[in-house]
Amino acid sequence: MAPFLTDWRGRFTGRALAVLRPADPDQVAQLVQACAAHRVPLVPQGGKTGLVLGSVPDASGSAVVLSLARLNRVRALDPVNRTITVDAGCILQTIQEAAAAVGCLFPLSLAAEGNCSIGGNLSTNAGGTAVLRYGNTRELCLGLEVVTAQGELWNGLRALRKDNTGYDLRDLFIGAEGTLGVITGAVLRLFPQPKASITALVAIAAPRQALDLLTLAQDRCGASLTGFELMSDFCLRLVGTHFPSLTQPFVTRHAQYVLLELSSSESEEHAVGLLEETIADAIAQDIADDAVVATSVAQSLALWQLREHIPLAQAAAGKNIKHDIALPVSCIADFIASTDARVLAAYPGCQLVCFGHVGDGNLHYNVAPPPGTAHEDFLAHQDAINRIVHDSVASYAGSISAEHGIGALKRDELKRYKTDVELNMMRAIKAALDPLGIMNPGKIL
Amino acid sequence: MAPFLTDWRGRFTGRALAVLRPADPDQVAQLVQACAAHRVPLVPQGGKTGLVLGSVPDASGSAVVLSLARLNRVRALDPVNRTITVDAGCILQTIQEAAAAVGCLFPLSLAAEGNCSIGGNLSTNAGGTAVLRYGNTRELCLGLEVVTAQGELWNGLRALRKDNTGYDLRDLFIGAEGTLGVITGAVLRLFPQPKASITALVAIAAPRQALDLLTLAQDRCGASLTGFELMSDFCLRLVGTHFPSLTQPFVTRHAQYVLLELSSSESEEHAVGLLEETIADAIAQDIADDAVVATSVAQSLALWQLREHIPLAQAAAGKNIKHDIALPVSCIADFIASTDARVLAAYPGCQLVCFGHVGDGNLHYNVAPPPGTAHEDFLAHQDAINRIVHDSVASYAGSISAEHGIGALKRDELKRYKTDVELNMMRAIKAALDPLGIMNPGKIL
């Protein structure tokens, strides 16, 4: 059972009575019925790539793990309706490839796409790099098939853009992290495959200019703007230290950088022209200091690699204290300035690794120890630093979990920052749909 | 109390103990507390433009009407975050205008926009003409303020693109038609205002060509495709009969027409060029037979007027039997052919008025009597014709209410077409959040 009990980052190993590996939704229903009859808790598990201890059992050993990995069929593909119907255990990359094979795009894209399953993406309402244009996993799902906590199979596999017939059960199961039922299948939205995507790295003086650039790029490019990522110079220096083979395009250093991606349904020329005009505007308006535009797919990938190597460089430097937070986009610059000041006042010299999907208001705001302090030792300050950062997030009406969910890891944080009114509604819904409390206990609530 | 008791179409007049007109969310909370203490049912009411008897009280006279009309402030506008925060009683058009004043677009648009309130739009998850590009009201809402059935004020007014902290209460209240709580405020998404929109009317041989044209236009135009409406020749003839002053652009008649709208964030030239290329492609591929492209805003409006006068022409012709249905887009042509055949077999000579938002799979499939039969007499067949049409919808896994909701009008139809598994989950949620059953009783469930 070992591979099913330890979380993705290797931080926690739970115990289980057994690992159940059903082959289809009916078997899932039968297993849930059996567990309900015997009051045995279930921990649904997909690709197990989650970061908040949502899909591994606790240490009690009283639960069974319900792996959805064998439910891995692409059930149907409808290019005219632009939908794909899949089993919950399908790997995200498999779905992307199936869509591409018929000239369509399934836009959900994230670092774990080769391992994560769509059931897990749905259960955590995963984000990723394409949210700015296409939305979170929630917005990409039209219908669900779910085994309820009573072991009934609910066929909500609607392939419809409009359906106003009663309560939105679909969105209740999405993001519920397996605590209300087990997602066994889904109907997902597909989009036309863009003809071209082109990327630029834009040097700016401070996070505030990133907001000006975002407004400008959205006004000029509309839905063609498909990526907008902020990275501090410290992030790129960290990448340079640990991945010196990656080309860093600017000779002089700048304080901050925006990775900007445009996609065109028309042509590469159209995308390049629009991108160059937008950047020229930004420079003329003193928003941007400098920019490089990728002139080939390889160059675009190289720019994205800089962004994607930030967490890898951090991992190479040692463990650090991570926050996956969301804010109103307009508060991003103020948030960074005031939170940096608060953290540095409490921990002078500590290193702030701040980057993220700024177009969505989503920052990965990570804190590493001062140079010379051992990373492991610094983790002792995790709770105190979480308090500073999350209190700051709350003061801007932000979210303490933008795209990773709550799981077991952030359960106590959730209690601290949600109102009783909201927690009580969540508890009432949990009790209504899972009265025995057997679905993924100890997660979220 | 009379103006608060009769529905928009004048089909039903209920009774009430009183009409309550609170001025702010706290007063709403106090009133709900009082009603809960005395077990008095509440019927939340906005602009009262709904079509399914969702916002008027029943005939018993045991309920109070809770009008949100005095909650009509625009609370905040954040152009950088592209959000607007509004009271539930704000008229939709007021919100559109407030957004436009800062160069932004609030895309929700529907016939009743001058009268309907955003609280009602949210409570019915309203659709309209911009769903293809921007989604339903659900997709346009980031956060809600709700008075619960216990009279507590829930502040869920998040202005965030990403927030994965527990169950999606927001989407549970959206579309719940006031049966779970009272929406008092909302944070809505804004978009960049397109630089230009341009419209064409494309003549095609049959609904199947509309699907080919949709695929072609989406592939070529991506998110620039903002409207895609199908109208039969019968619809345009009806408009011609009742509104002879409206110009009909084609000299020869064609079987079907698609109204196609493109928007560009760049320029009018860009939109026109893209539209002309798309239509040229469609004609070259024998998808389209003919087309007219509007060369001015006035011409675009004139084309949209043809579409918008179809329901008015129907009303002028007399009462008919209406269906607001959704299907997988790929099934639209088969659905129309097979349903037409079934209806005509049962009622020879009856007239089928079929048009709608085909890009969303949403048809208004209406049935008028054979020429010479009185419209009022034909309404006697309403239940039997509903059965034929809705059974056909169900056979294609469609929805019997695409954008109007359930209210009291379609409650029995809902019971017929939903599974017990789904109805029981809905009942469990209703009981969990409104255990006294005082929130808009008799609607949906």
Helix content of chain A: 25-40%
Morphology of chain A: globular
Q: What CATH architecture of the largest domain in chain A do you see?
A: 2-Layer Sandwich
Q: What is the terminal separation of chain A in angstroms?
A: 26 Å
Protein name (chains A, B): Hydroxyacid dehydrogenase
Cofactor (chains A, B): FAD
GO molecular function (chains A, B): catalytic activity; FAD binding
GO biological process, one term (chains A, B): respiratory electron transport chain
Q: Would you write up a description of this structure?
A:
Two copies of one chain form a homodimer. Chain A is α+β, with helices and mostly antiparallel strands and 445 residues long. Chain A has three domains: 74-192, 2-Layer Sandwich (Uridine Diphospho-n-acetylenolpyruvylglucosamine Reductase, domain 3), CATH 3.30.465; 196-317, Alpha-Beta Plaits (2-Layer Sandwich); 324-404, 2-Layer Sandwich (Alpha-Beta Plaits), CATH 3.30.70.2740. Chain A has helices at 25-37, 92-100, 118-123, 131-134, 169-173, 207-221, 233-242, 268-284, 297-317, 332-346, 375-378, 382-395, 411-417, 420-433, and strands at residues 18-20, 42-45, 64-67, 74-78, 83-87, 104-105, 141-148, 153-156, 181-189, 191-192, 196-204, 225-232, 256-264, 290-293, 324-326, 351-357, 362-368. In chain A, strands 14-11-13-12-16-17-15 form a seven-stranded antiparallel sheet, sandwiched between helices. A five-stranded antiparallel sheet of chain A has the order 4-5-9-7-8, sandwiched between helices. In chain A, strands 1-3-2 form a three-stranded parallel sheet, with helices on one face. In chain A, a hairpin with a 4-residue loop joins strand 16 and strand 17. In chain A, 57% of the residues are buried. The mean pLDDT of chain A is 96. Chains A, B: Belongs to the FAD-binding oxidoreductase/transferase type 4 family. Chains A, B: Its cofactor is FAD.
